[in-house]
């Protein structure tokens, strides 16, 4: 187990890197917005990135309240339990990201299985109606 001091240092590094990545993303989004305002179009990848960055910036507003109000950062874990998508994507840890991807994959697999079952049922009904 890590000591309390080491966990605090790790958490501070995590937030430093998160804000740094968010700043870089914001600069990229500003350039994309400049291109849009001057009549250029964005590729599909750039458009998705631009939307993700804008969503992150809007998520940052309630997150900043926790940082600005004194001693409110101690309530941040409680708020994150209640609202798990409150943090911008740049603050996501590897484990949280893997967990989210696994959850999305499970949902996709369940949907694919449901669609396969539905198609099989329709095929059986069509076969019974013809035969």
What's the short story on this structure?
This is LETM1 protein. With 131 residues, the chain is mainly α.
Walk me through what this model shows.
The chain is mainly α. It has two domains: 1-87; 92-130. It has four helices and no strands. The longest helix is centred in the last third of the chain and has 37 residues, at 94-130. It starts with a helix and ends with a helix. Residues 42-127 form the Letm1 RBD domain.
Outline the secondary-structure elements.
Layout: H1 4-37, H2 44-68, H3 76-82, H4 94-130
- N→C terminal distance: 68 Å
How can the largest sheet be summarized?
A: none
**Whole-number mean pLDDT:** 88
Assembly state (oligomeric): single chain
- Class based on secondary structure composition and strand pairing: mainly alpha
* Count, helices: 4
Fraction in beta strands? under 5%
What percent of the residues sit in helical stretches (DSSP H or I)? Answer: over 70%
Number of domains: 2
| Order of helical and strand elements | HHHH
The number of distinct β-strands equals 0
- The stretches of 5 or more residues where confidence is low (pLDDT under 50) are none
Radius of gyration: 22 Å
Shape: flat
């Amino acid at each position: 187990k890590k000591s309390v001091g080491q966990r605090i240092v790790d958490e501070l590094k995590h937030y430093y890197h998160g804000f740094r990545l968010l700043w870089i993303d914001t600069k990229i989004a500003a350039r994309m917005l400049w291109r849009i305002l001057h009549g250029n179009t964005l590729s599909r990848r750039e458009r998705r990135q631009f939307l993700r960055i804008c969503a992150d910036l809007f998520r940052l507003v309630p997150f900043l309240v926790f940082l600005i109000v004194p001693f409110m950062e101690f309530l941040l874990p409680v708020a994150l339990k209640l609202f798990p998508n409150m943090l911008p994507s740049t603050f996501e840890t590897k484990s949280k990201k893997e967990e989210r991807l696994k959850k999305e994959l499970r949902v996709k697999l369940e949907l694919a299985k449901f669609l396969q079952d539905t198609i099989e049922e329709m095929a059986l009904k069509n076969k019974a109606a013809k035969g």
